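FW: tagging you since you asked about this chain on Friday. Here's the raw sequence from the shared folder, copied in full. Didn't touch anything.
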Amino acid sequence: MKQRKMKLTRRSRLIHALIPAAVTVAASPLALADDNSGEGRFHFDGYLREEVSINAKNWQDTPGYNDTGKVSMARTTARLNMDFKANDTVTFVAKARASKELNTPFLKHLEGMGANSYRNQGLTRDLYDDVDVREWYADVKASDRVKFRFGKQQIVWGETDFFVANDLAQGYDNVWRSFLEPANEELRKGNIILKANIDVPEANGGIEAFIRPGWDRKRDIGTEIDIYGGRWSSQPYAGVDFRKIDPYSWHNAKADIDSKTGGVRWSGMAGDTNYSVSWMRTFYNSPIMNPSPNLALFGLPNVPSGATPTGSATTAGLAGEIIYPIVNVIGATASRYSDMADAVFSTEVAYIKDAPFNFAAATPSPLSGAVAPGFDGWKTKNVIASMIRMDKNFAFTQSLLGTEKPMFFSVQLFDKWIQNFDQNENLLYSVGWGGRVKRHNTLATAIFDLSYDNGRLHPQLVLGSDVTNGGGFFIPSFTTQLSKNLRWKIEYDGFWDNGYAKAPVPGSDRTTLFGYLHNRDQVYTSLTYLF
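HL: got it, structure written out here
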């Protein structure tokens, strides 16, 4: 999805001009450092970080190559956050990040297998290296009750861990780190948005509304997964760049990135309960395969494929195109402390109208038979996504494990409930595998968080399980504060599954989520200097 080269329209030239302008405005006080009038109005912080990940197991889809112990990521990142308070009503903000990676022997091997061959520019240079102003906006206080924010920004309308219910306003970049990054803001994509916040103290709440006018870059739409054959490609597709036969399409009638999206949310307090209700029109986060109507993939462009594309008469690629259909989401959240349980309970519910799913036809099309399940088309179903979570502190760890304070424990249950479910529709979890969606699709996660030496030593264990289909993940980690500004972290990212696919994936395949991550275990470590 790193579509970096594009023809500059008048609108895109405007956006490209606004980015450096925002940075210039935010940084302008540096030139006036000797001017006392600017004292205290400019603030910056950030970090320098080195990250390394090493394969812990030998992949099944790199035959003749031993992946164990190979460095899959050696990444250097600099992050800079800046804000400038022009006056009592206007503040300018810019958040920039630059990342550079070493092209390790493991990545070179994936490139030799065909990774990122669609663009033929190498994995690090084209996919992993990045210099970007991730957010740039102006905050304007119109009155004591009304505030506006305009520019590229992130919208957070949810609090789920790892899997989202209401937090669908924007997509995530899961190419360089997958879903394992604990700081969502490092993966969440910003969009150019006008947002308004209106406080309504008489009702113990307020309104938040935003509109996205459709001025974003292609790379800033949808949740991006590794379909390029890189280090987070899924079993059995290491080294396979699917864009060669089904590239992204950005102007499908059902998924046009120029379309306006937005939402409105009411947040408030009812007694001791925090709650919110919302409506949102947004791009569905997961990519969907829109199949080709012909067999051009086999050199037969005039022969029907048996599949029918939606939103277009033809497709961008020989086998199809990848799109992010627009959906409507009605959501609600609530959280409250319980004296009886001495815990905080939270819940989220989202009604997703016309959520898209690829499917496997009863008689597969030649494309599905030759490439992978899911090239038969897609259909929509209404979905209720829900989450319930409990956060609690357990004091027994102080005497049993010697922690300085009670252990923080969080458990979450996440479910997607397909409305008017018909198993004969053969809905798929993802194109590329044959695992069928169930009426209820449930995931559970748990976090055990310990603290020692005044927070300087920080062991943690994160567990996750696919309750419906089997499989899961476990992430033990240890973080230590080496000095006031220096943090070191080491973790193991482990996965288990109940079956995985071998290429070519047959129509009888039933692989689900954690089968995609078969043998993708890794050791990850990072060293961060905060300033």
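FW: Residues 59 and 519 are 6 Å apart (CA to CA).
HL: agreed, and The chain is about 10% helix and 45% strand.
FW: great, closing this out.
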